[in-house]
Specification:
125 residues, mainly alpha, 0% strand
Length: 125
């Protein structure tokens, strides 16, 4: 009953960096985040970053912001280097990448992107 389905794409989108249009960049960003474990690590890193940002505000200690950035990027980069086998988009276009991290977080929270199986995604990835 549990048959593995392999999705075959006739045409993989080609992207020329740097990408000036944010909509195009987010499409590229999602192609760099197809591995489910990598997505999970990104969401974990963003969640840790949010927790430590709130701690920094509540305790009035800016060092927690640095801890949040370190923890967030470390988990995302592990996802890229170990599971995706690609360079993080933050090396290529840091501002668009940072914005896209939070957009992907939002898409996961709203159920548009799955952390279980890409076939459950409601937007193309």
């Amino acid at each position: 009953m549990n048959t593995m389905i392999q999705l075959q794409f006739e045409h993989q989108p080609e992207f020329q960096l740097p990408i000036q249009n944010y909509h195009e960049f987010y499409r590229f960003y999602l192609t760099e985040h197809r591995n489910i474990m990598s997505r999970r690590l990104h969401i974990l890193g963003s969640s840790v970053g949010l927790c430590l940002l709130s701690r920094a505000i509540l305790k009035r200690k800016p060092k927690y912001v640095a801890y949040g950035l370190l923890g967030g990027y470390a988990s995302a980069w592990i996802g890229h280097f170990v599971f995706e086998k690609n360079k993080p988009a933050s090396f290529k276009q840091p501002l668009y990448s940072f914005i896209s991290d939070w957009r992907m977080f939002s898409d996961v929270m709203r159920g548009n992107l799955s952390l279980k199986d890409r076939s459950l995604d409601k937007i193309p990835s």
